């Protein structure tokens, strides 16, 4: 269960949030005994420092948490989250000069710091709880935390318990919680309903491939989210080496991210009409596997030569994007753990995105800063279009040469989009090492930036 802020009337102790630059002035305002204690313990408000403050009766009177200096703060995010693990049991309220987006981000970090993936092993959460800071919309921050919880849980669950069937169950459960409707096209019905690429990629898996759909909202602008739901990716007949296959339970990170984003949208009651599409498959090896040099016909009629069965994510997304564009939508967004090339370009911490809409790009970039959810715009570079045209078919799913792999994948997806307002996110979905509010494991990327951009992008 995602954490919530303590009740506003709950007894609490102060957590003084102090910047290094302001420490001397702040210490001068404290009682003499407390100032002496801070000096004796060596607290100087460095980033991540915590000092417990004793009362005159020997009981805990509060705590101080350091924010360090501006240069150190610029090198990270969720700075107070590290303090949460070092505080004793009790409820704390922040006393700080932070305001606006910076304060909301720190409040969110305090909730995210309590995340533990405990499905298979008991985990010990932090002891301290927190009140929502004055000026922060507690319901909104709690909704963001719950959305991130859902995304992390889905990614962290291994394919033995998160195959296409379980992903379908998770989407249906999400729909039920928020009064949405959900449906699925499964197995051979994919052929009858004209989803040939989803069927081809998933037909070798132990569970039938499927196209999942959820709808919510009766009025307002239309938003369509498409998430890659490859529940495990062996690489198919172009089998991945072992070290590359080790994290492939996270190859449904796009689906997990759009489901978390959808949960936040519904929990916050945004005035829009939401549609979520998830092609859910396993890319497995069997006698039914699709093969290199197969030529497949997509839902929109384009032919695709398969030059690497490990470039399967763009295939299943292609059918889903084509379906998305068969009805009017005001904004279409796809999210996928699509290419290693994106990680080479920007590393694991940044979510690169592609769009031809300059206004949408600006809104996403601005919202990402406020939401502590870093993104970076990449180009739909038209001169590279020839790289995805093999000659024997309309498209090549895996151009040779190794150059611009994330860009060519994005260009491939754009061929299946029949409307102008589109953005594609090529996310990693994984935190490779523990960081404040982000333990090693599955992580959401880009969803908060998208959520923050929606009011401007859709005129909400």
TrEMBL record:
Keywords: Aminopeptidase, Hydrolase, Manganese, Protease. This is Leucyl aminopeptidase. GO terms for molecular function: manganese ion binding; metalloaminopeptidase activity. GO terms for biological process: proteolysis. Pfam families: Peptidase_M17 (PF00883), Peptidase_M17_N_1 (PF21337). Belongs to the peptidase M17 family. It comes from Rhodovulum euryhalinum. It comes from the Bacteria. InterPro entries: Leucine_aapep/pepB, Macro_dom-like, Peptidase_M17_C, Peptidase_M17_N_1.
């Amino acid at each position: 269960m995602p954490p919530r802020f303590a009740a506003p009337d709950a007894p609490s102790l102060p957590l003084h949030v102090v910047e290094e630059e302001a420490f001397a002035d702040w210490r001068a305002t404290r009682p003499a005994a407390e100032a002496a204690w801070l000096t004796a313990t060596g607290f100087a408000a460095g980033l991540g420092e915590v000092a417990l403050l004793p009362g005159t009766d020997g009981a805990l009177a509060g705590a101080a948490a350091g924010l360090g200096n501006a240069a150190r703060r610029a090198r990270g995010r969720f700075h107070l989250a590290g303090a949460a693990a070092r505080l004793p049991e009790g409820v704390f309220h922040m006393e700080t000069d932070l305001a606006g987006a910076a304060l909301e981000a720190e409040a969110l970090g305090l909730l995210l710091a309590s995340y533990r993936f405990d499905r298979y092993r008991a985990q010990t959460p932090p002891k301290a709880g927190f009140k929502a800071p004055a000026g922060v919309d507690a319901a909104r921050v709690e909704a963001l935390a719950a959305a991130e919880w859902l995304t992390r849980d889905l990614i962290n669950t291994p394919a033995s318990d998160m195959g296409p069937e379980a992903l379908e169950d998770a989407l249906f459960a999400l729909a039920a919680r928020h009064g949405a409707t959900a449906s699925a096209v499964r197995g051979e019905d994919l052929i009858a309903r004209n989803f040939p690429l989803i069927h081809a990629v998933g037909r070798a898996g132990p569970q039938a491939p499927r196209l999942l759909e959820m709808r919510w909202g009766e009025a307002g602008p239309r938003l369509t989210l498409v998430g890659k739901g490859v529940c495990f990716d062996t690489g198919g007949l172009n089998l991945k080496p072992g070290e590359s296959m080790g994290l492939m339970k996270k190859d449904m990170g796009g689906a997990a991210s759009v489901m978390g984003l959808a949960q936040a949208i519904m929990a916050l009651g945004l005035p829009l009409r939401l549609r979520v599409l998830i092609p859910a498959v396993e890319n497995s090896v069997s006698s039914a596997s699709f093969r290199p040099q197969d030529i497949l016909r997509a839902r929109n009629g384009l032919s695709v030569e398969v030059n690497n069965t490990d470039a399967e994510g763009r295939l299943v997304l292609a059918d889903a994007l084509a379906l998305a564009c068969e009805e009017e939508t005001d904004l279409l967004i796809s999210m996928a753990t699509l290419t290693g090339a994106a990680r080479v370009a920007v590393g694991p911490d940044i979510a690169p995105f592609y769009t031809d809409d300059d206004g949408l790009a600006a809104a996403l970039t601005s919202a990402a800063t406020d939401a502590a959810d870093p993104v970076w715009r990449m180009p739909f570079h038209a001169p590279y279009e020839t790289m995805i045209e093999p000659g024997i078919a309309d498209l090549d799913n895996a151009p040779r040469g190794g150059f611009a792999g994330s860009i060519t994948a994005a260009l491939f997806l754009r061929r299946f989009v029949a409307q102008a307002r589109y953005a594609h996110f090529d996310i990693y979905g994984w935190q490779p090492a523990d960081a404040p509010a982000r333990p090693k494991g599955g992580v959401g990327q880009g969803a908060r930036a998208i959520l923050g951009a929606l009011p401007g992008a859709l005129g909400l």
